[in-house]
Amino acid sequence: MCPGPRALVLVAVMVAGCASSKSASVETSNTVQKAYAPDRLIELGRAHRRAGDATRAEQYFAAVLENREATDSQRGIAMKEVLATCIEAQRFRVAIDYAEPELRKHPNDLALMRLVASLAAAVGDGLKARDMYERLLLRAPVDSDAELGLARVLRDAFADRREATVHFERYLELAPSGPYAAEARTFVAEASP
Asked: Distance between CA 106 and CA 100 in Å, rounded?
């Protein structure tokens, strides 16, 4: 039995309705994917960071780090942004938590090593800070900032005046007119018998 013209019109309307509904669903899906593409997440994270919403900014940058479609370049940008966001918000331990896995992947990244060392010193983790500065100096023996950081950690976290003096003196050798030369000279002068 053939359907009547009325039934055919009804089926045609239903098919058209389903087709337009499916088309709208695909369009929505594409829009969502585009909205959450790594570049878009970075853009949103930066906007929230500029607005002072560090928590939301961190979430967007972390989403890029977890996104399997993100390129190495996008992950690198997101890592720098999330670290800067955490530091601006004075969430130093959280910044360390983001940086350490990256440092394990790139153990010769001197800038990242220096950052982790200084963050560890800032949160009072003298052991980690000393270890990181010592590792940094093994790879970059003429790094005046690492000498200064190690000297401060030895002075502040370990009260090791003798070793701190050695590293303050080394800082002065490397950066006699450096921005912290006065601090180093004062410490060395006071530590001398």
From this structure: 10
